[in-house]
Each structure stands twice: as C-alpha cells, then as structure tokens.
Design a protein that fits this description.
Blueprint (H helix, E strand, L loop, with lengths): L2 E3 L22 E3 L3 E4 L4 E9 L3 E4 L5 E3 L3 E2 L3 E7 L8 E10 L2 E9 L10 E4 L16 H7 L6 E5 L1 E3 L18 E3 L4 E6 L16 E4 L1 E3 L2 E2 L4 E3 L9 E9 L2 E2 L5 E4 L2 E4 L6 E4 L2 E10 L2 E2 L6 E4 L3 E5 L2 E3 L2 E2 L9 E4 L2 E5 L2 E3 L2 E2 L6 E4 L3 E5 L2 E3 L2 E2 L6 E4 L3 E5 L2 E3 L2 E2 L7 E4 L3 E5 L2 E3 L9 E3 L4 E5 L2 E3 L8 E3 L2 E5 L1 E3 L2 E3 L13 H4 E3 L5 E3 L5 H4 L4 H10 L6 H4 L22
Parallel strand pairs: 1-3, 3-10, 11-12, 12-15, 13-16, 14-19, 15-20, 16-20, 19-24, 20-25, 21-26, 24-27, 25-28, 25-29, 26-30, 27-31, 28-32, 29-33, 30-34, 31-35, 32-36, 33-37, 34-38, 35-39, 36-40, 37-41, 38-42, 39-43, 40-44, 41-45, 43-46, 44-47, 45-48, 46-49, 47-50, 48-51
Antiparallel strand pairs: 2-4, 4-8, 5-7, 5-9, 6-8, 9-10, 17-18, 22-23, 51-52, 53-54
Length: 560
C-alpha cells in the first residue's frame, strides 16, 4: 500500500454531463489509497481510472474537493487547509460509482508547528497604517484579513466598525455578504479609548466598541460576525468588550461554503459560529434582525460557545415562521455564566433560546426574561434530544401569544435539569411556567414555579416531571416528591420583586425559605450530575451570596 507526498496543483474543471455514457461493468482504480500531505494550505491531484461516471465526497471540513465528479478516467483535485494544531490529523475522501464499487483515500496531514511570537494588531476606525501600533493602527477588516497565526491578538479602539470584506466564497456582487470573518483562533479585545496610549488597559463600559452590520444605503450584512476558524488544541476564538448589532439575516435560504461548512445566510444576523470554539466576555449581541431564524446568535455543526457577562438582547426574528430570536444552538453547545437573554421577539417559536439536534446548554447565574414569541417555548425551547442545565437562573416575564410553555418548553426526547431557579411571571396558552411534551424529562430541584398565567397551568406535562424541594403554584414538595400537607405557598405575598430581575422569597412562615435544600444536599446533587456543578456555584445564589445556614428555594437567598 504505497504512501506518497503529492506535489501541489491548481486548476479548474468544466461542467460535466453525467448522463452521456454507455453502461459497462463498473471498474474504478486509484493511484494511491494513502496520501501524506504537509501542514500547509495546498492543492493536490491524483489519477482516477474508471470506465463509468464517478463521484467524490469527504466529511472533513479541512479537506475541500474541487473535482467532485467525472464521466470516466480523470484527475481528482482536492485541497487541504493549513493544520494549526500540534497533532497529526487524518481524514478521507470516498470515490464511488455505486455503493458496491467505491474506494477510500486516506489523507494524513502533518502536525502544525508552534508559533513562538504572538503578533499584536492595533485597530482604529480611521486606521490607515500596518496595524503594528496604535500610532500605525489599521482597520478591523484589514487586520482580520492579515492575521496568519492562531493566538494573535487584535486590540480595537472605541468607535463603530462596519465590515468591508466579503466572506470567503461569498458573492462579490452582494454587499450583504460583507462580514467580520474570524478565520483564525485569535483574540479580539475592544474597549480602548479613541486614541489610546501604549500600555492602556481596555474599559468597555466607558469606551464602547461597536461592530455593526449597517452598511449604509439601507443595506445590512447577513452576519455581522462570522466565525469560521478551524478547531485548535492550543487556542480558541476569544472576544472581549464588544457590541455586535444591526445585522439582518436573509429572508431567503442560501448558503456559503467555507472549509466544508455551509453557513446559512438566513441564520445568525449578529453572530454565526460554525464548527468553531468561541469564548465571549462582556460581549453584547443586541438589536439584530433575521428574516428566518436566529437573529442574535446561531451556533451549529458541533460549535461550542463559552460566555461570561454577556447580553443577547432585543433581537427580532421578524417573520411568523421565524424561530429563536436570541440564541439558537443547533447540534452545538454553550456554557453561559452571569448573562442575559432578554427582550428578544420571535415570530415563531423560541423567543429567547432554542436548542435543536442534540445540543447542550449550561446556564449559571443567568436570566431569560421579557422575551416574546408567537408560539411554543417563549423563554427557552429545549428540542430534539438536547440537554439543558439551569442553576441559579431566573426565567421571568416571557410571553407566548398562542402556544405552549411561556417560560420553558421541552419537546422531543430532551432532559432539562433546573436547580435553585425562579420561574415566574410567564404567560402562555398552556404550561405558562413549563410545558413538558411526551417523551421529555424535567427535573426540578430547590426551585420556584409560581405567578405564571394562567395560574392553573403553572406546569403542564405529558412527559416526566421530578419535583424535589420545590414549589409549583401553591403546592410545596419535599425531597421525596411528596406534596407537604397543610403547607401553602402564597406567591403574591411571599415573593418580592426588585430591580435587575430580582425575585426574593420574603416573610415569616414562608415555605420557600423553610423547605429548600441545604448546602450539603446541593453539593451532593451537583456532584451527581453530568456535567458536575462546581461547588462555588451551587452553594451560592445568583449574586454570590452563600446558601450556608439557609434552605431557601430559588435563584436568590437575599436581595442584597
């Protein structure tokens, strides 16, 4: 079985009529079924000998096939992207006539090399330099196009930036394909003053750095930020101190292919993340719109997102069938701390958050509030084999106009664990607090579900509901899921609402204060889950107040 290192070749092919052939007994051979390639961006060709039409495909996003079909013997042309990891990687190309007559080509790419020097780039709104210093600052679009190495850092002065470059493989004739494409695992830091001195520290609260999709002339980018960076063991994409706004995803379904991943133009107006790992700190994704789905953020194709102190607020999915106005996880994962998903509006389902296709989401000390949708799962719609964990969270005042699940809806094989959380003030046609469809499980621990409208429909379930040390409506449940006799929760008197989504149990003889879980019980529960909940999170409330010496249900121990 020969192993060869191929020379590079760049070319193009004419369109082929695959119908013009005479049937024969299938025969297909290749010059090599194992290929070793370097760690750089390169294009290769190999000979395919076949007496019938053949096709080629790959499932690896770092392998791109230029010749995906031919009527007979011809050359297969493919390219590989640079390997930015320190590990060798392997993929394959399948070439076939029929499923009985196919060949596999194994491609092994050499590991990348560590970069010794982190390059720092400096960006201003009016930058005209090479980006080597604040004095020689460049523009953000130029910096993003110039970055060559994972681990580089782009420092961005305050101001408003609009994209000036088309996404790779986009339509040059369509200005709405302009985007801030992040193609390497780099760090972007906003919040510097307009004319920073060397060594200045960022202050995003004082120096707003805005990435806008407003292209002028009534045009808006389909995606303000597009993350296409291939995964690396050493670096992730990191964004700090930025506001992302004014994107408008298309009303029409079309895609742009980048490194084997199809990025839909009708999803992710603020930010779209495909098959990448992204960390966000103090990033606000606000006031974006989508003609179809995911006005705020769309993460898909096994992407992962980590967020701290972020806001996905006031985004609108404009049409009656538009879903997931705030955050849409589609076969993706998210870990979210101390963040808000609020005031988003979907014409369809999932005003705040929607999960789909075995997505995973963990929400800690976060808020889902004030979202609206026409139909199901207004605050959070957990769907299709997805898994969710909410700890110290507030799900409040979400309004579902015609469907089920004002606060949370669980649909099609999902599991939702809710711990020390408060679900109040939501409205829906049925299951105003939580609606559990058949085949779904919701585990409720140390939580409060009350004051949702209609009052008799706090939780509607055709699936499985576990209620331990929790309140549903006026009923109080103990640690073995039994309703405690003679104990009633009067939510209107025993919950006090304050500013900043504060909802605190108050008063004497309040079952929300007396019948909750102890710190020891919470710690044991946290350790039993997968993923485990860190002790410093589960033993404190949403504001970081200790739960020691308390047995208080809900997100808050105290209003201070």
């Amino acid at each position: 079985m020969p192993v060869i290192l191929l020379a590079t070749f760049i070319g193009c092919k004419e369109e082929i009529d695959l119908q013009s052939f005479t049937p024969l007994d299938p025969s297909i051979t290749i010059t090599s079924d194992e290929i070793l390639v370097s760690n750089q961006d390169e294009v290769f060709e190999i000979d395919i000998e076949s007496n019938l039409p053949w096709r080629a495909e790959t499932k690896q996003n770092w392998i791109n096939i230029q010749t995906n079909s031919a009527p007979g013997s011809d050359k297969l042309v493919f390219s590989v992207t640079r390997n930015t990891t320190l590990s060798e990687r392997q993929g394959s190309i399948r070439v076939w006539i029929t499923k009985e007559y196919d060949k596999q080509i194994i491609i092994t790419q050499q590991p990348g090399e560590p970069v010794d020097v982190t390059v720092k780039w400096y960006v201003k709104v009016d930058g005209t330099g090479d980006g080597s210093s604040w004095e020689n600052a460049t523009t953000l679009s130029v910096a993003l196009q110039s970055v060559e190495n994972d681990g580089d850092v782009i420092h961005i002065a305050e101001g408003t930036y609009a994209p000036a470059a088309i996404i790779r493989n986009g339509q040059a004739s369509d200005s709405r394909d302009m985007t801030f494409e992040i193609a390497r695992n780099i760090t972007l830091i906003g919040g510097y003053s307009a004319n920073p001195a060397e060594g200045e520290e960022p202050d995003p609260a004082s120096n707003e750095t805005v990435l806008t999709g407003d292209l002028g002339g009534g045009n808006s980018a389909y995606h303000v930020v597009t993350v296409t960076a291939l995964r690396s063991e050493l670096n992730n994409v990191v964004m700090k101190g930025l506001t992302v706004t004014a994107g408008f995803a298309s009303t029409d379904a079309s895609n742009v292919g980048v490194d084997g991943v199809s990025f839909p133009r009708d999803h992710g107006a603020g930010m779209i993340i495909g098959a990448s790992d992204v960390e966000l700190f103090d990033v606000n994704i606000v006031e974006n719109r989508s003609g179809r789905h995911a006005a705020g953020m769309y993460a898909f194709a096994s992407a992962s997102v980590y967020m701290e102190r972020c806001k996905i607020n006031s985004n609108i999915a404009v049409n009656s069938n538009s879903n997931a106005a705030g955050l849409f996880l589609d076969n993706a994962s998210a870990v979210i701390h101390d963040s808000e998903i609020a005031f988003n509006n979907a014409g369809g389902v999932g005003g705040g958050i929607m999960t789909l296709n075995a997505a995973n989401i963990e929400l800690y000390n976060s808020v889902i509030s004030g979202n609206t949708s026409r139909t199901h799962g207004c605050g959070f719609y957990n769907r299709t084999n997805s898994k969710a964990l909410l700890v110290n969270c507030v799900v409040s005042d979400n309004v579902n106009n015609t469907g089920n699940g004002g606060g949370i809806a669980a649909h099609t094989g999902t599991t939702t664990d809710i711990i020390s959380s408060t679900i109040v003030g939501n409205k829906a046609n049925a299951g105003a607090g939580i609606y559990i469809y058949a085949g779904n499980t919701v585990n409720l621990h140390n939580s409060i579900v009350a004051l949702n409208e209609p009052a008799g429909d706090e939780i509607v379930m055709a699936g499985t509901l576990v209620r331990k040390n929790s309140i549903v409506g006026s009923a109080v449940y103990n640690d073995i899921e039994e309703q405690i006799g003679g104990v009633t929760f009067a939510a209107g008197e025993m919950l006090e609402k304050g500013d900043n989504f504060m909802i605190v149990p108050v008063g004497n003889d309040n079952p929300a204060i007396e019948y909750g879980m102890s710190v020891i019980q919470l710690t044991v529960l946290g350790n039993s889950l997968n993923p485990q909940v860190e002790e410093h999170i589960i033993t404190n409330d949403r504001l970081g107040n200790s739960r020691a010496d308390h047995t208080i249900m809900g997100a808050y121990v105290t209003g201070e």
